[in-house]
Amino acid sequence: MCFISHEIKNPLNMILATMQLIEKKAEKNIYPKDILQHVELVKRNSFRIMKIVNDLSSKSKIELGYETFNPTNQDIVYFVEDICESVRDFVNINEMNIIFDTDIEELVVGFDSEKIEKIVLNLISNSLKFRKKKDGIVLVSLSHDKDFVYIKVKDNGIGISKENAKRIFKIFERVNDKRSIVKQGTGVGLSLVKTFAKLHNGSVSVKSKLGQGSEFTVKIANTLTSKDETQDEYELTKDERIQNIRVAFSDLH
């Protein structure tokens, strides 16, 4: 848990230092042109703290048996494609492109929208974290058979070694290597992906080669939820979706 404390202290120190700088300038009635950059820095580090707290909270709920599972019958093709479109600007900022592909135009299945959103955002964020410096591509694809729906996130980044690939889904395991652009992370995200996939009677796996990229495959049961199990739909405004994206991508530069 020591490094978790370190991960929280870093953004907190950055926030405090930035706020002290703003206060000093305000005391002298200096309002520089870069004030918005200072504010953005505070916001980004606040999102980093929110991500850490959210991940640890979800993991604690799971371990204590309090994590809820609220599946609803929805079009998963539209849902995943909408996430991809929502993150396009964030992906482009990191000098990458995102592509969505599907083997079917519409597929209604029972799934927990909040958890599937976290799965997809986490895997896309992972691709950005281990991207190459130029010409990066994230391919999100959806396919299905009679038993499962498969959500794949593939990239042409730096890849993961065989040794790291065996342990990346364990809690608090971090695989940041010296070649990765981003050095931050709590080691909780992929563990949550695994847990959330299991809640959908599915699993997650990874195929990767160093220097050639990685492909994560999440499979969930291709079943409908009974009316007795159906909960209120997880609906987000545009601003709420953007905030979720900023939290998910908060440890990216």
Layout of helices and strands:
Elements: H1 2-27, H2 35-64, E1 72-75, H3 76-93, E2 96-102, E3 108-111, H4 113-129, E4 136-144, E5 148-155, H5 162-165, H6 189-199, E6 203-209, E7 213-221, H7 238-248
Parallel strand pairs: 2-4
Antiparallel strand pairs: 1-3, 4-5, 5-7, 6-7
Give a description of the structure.
The chain has 253 residues and is an alpha+beta fold. The protein has 2 domains: 2-64, Helix Hairpins; 72-248, Histidine kinase-like ATPase, C-terminal domain (Heat Shock Protein 90, 2-Layer Sandwich). It is built from 7 helices and 7 strands, in the order ααβαββαββααββα.
Descriptors for this entry?
single chain, 253 residues, alpha+beta, Helix Hairpins, Heat Shock Protein 90, 2 domains, five-stranded mixed sheet, two-stranded antiparallel sheet, 7 helices, 7 strands, 46% helix
